[in-house]
């Protein structure tokens, strides 16, 4: 039986009203070996080796198709499509800016988008028997936003860059709140903080001033 968690949402609009959403409590991750063992149960007529080979081949050909600019739909599972991003240490272009134009070597596949098949969602729903698993409240930072910004700048005085997990550690914010706040700070020229990199390589650094140039 699966458990659900009632999760408190951050008060983004400042109304003071507590809102919630529900999420599944994930007990553990099932890796490939255990997944194949479940498929090849006694009496299934399937061998572990053959199923493992098929799944490995499916993954290989998924990659090939997406590398050729195609999306792939597997009935009962979902649709896979490649996601692009700018390579590490390259800044993102604006649509009509005068920055250097990107070429193919500046762009890379940095993720895979997946949209689940409706049948997979329905099958999961029909098999799922939920029970309440508790409440998760938003963790409040003991610091004001200005104090958090100061702590970030002090951190950057001693380190070349700041990651989201670093900001979480020095401010006490949860990941989603830390991510939103860093994005907001990096968009404010007066904050002293700016963004560098893209996607999983995104970090935050000190914003250069006129005196640094």
Instruction: Give the % helix.
Output: 25-40%
**CATH-level-4 superfamily name of the largest domain:** IHF-like DNA-binding proteins
Query: Averaging pLDDT over every residue, what do you get?
Result: 87
State the CATH architecture of the largest domain: Irregular
Oligomer: single chain
The N- to C-terminal Cα distance equals 61 Å
- In terms of DSSP E residues, the strand content is 15-25%
Count of distinct strands: 8
Q: Provide the succession of SSEs.
A: EEHHEEEHEHHHEE
What sort of overall outline do the alpha carbons produce when their principal axes are compared? extended
What is the makeup of the main sheet?
3 strands, mixed
Strand order across the largest sheet: 2-1-6
Structural class: alpha+beta
Tally of separate helices = 6
Task: Specify the CATH class of the largest domain.
Answer: Few Secondary Structures
């Amino acid at each position: 039986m699966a458990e659900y968690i009632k999760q408190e949402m951050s008060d983004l609009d400042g109304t003071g009203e507590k809102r919630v959403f529900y999420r599944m409590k994930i007990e553990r991750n099932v890796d490939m070996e255990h997944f194949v063992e479940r498929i090849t149960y006694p009496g299934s007529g399937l061998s572990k080796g053959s199923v493992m080979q098929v799944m490995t081949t499916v993954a290989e050909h998924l990659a090939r198709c997406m590398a050729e600019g195609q999306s792939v739909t597997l009935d009962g599972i979902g649709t896979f499509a490649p996601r692009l991003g700018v390579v590490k240490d390259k800044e993102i272009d604006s649509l009509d800016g005068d920055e250097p134009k990107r070429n193919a070597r500046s762009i890379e596949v940095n993720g895979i988008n997946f949209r689940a098949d409706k049948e997979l969602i329905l099958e999961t729903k029909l098999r799922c028997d939920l029970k309440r698993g508790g409440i998760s409240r938003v963790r409040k930072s003991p610091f004001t936003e200005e104090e958090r910004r100061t702590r970030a700048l002090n951190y950057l005085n001693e380190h070349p860059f700041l990651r989201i997990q670093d900001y979480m550690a020095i401010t006490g914010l949860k990941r989603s709140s830390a991510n939103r706040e860093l994005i907001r700070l990096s968009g404010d020229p007066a904050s002293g903080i700016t963004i560098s990199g893209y996607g999983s390589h995104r970090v935050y650094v000190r914003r250069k001033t006129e005196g640094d140039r």
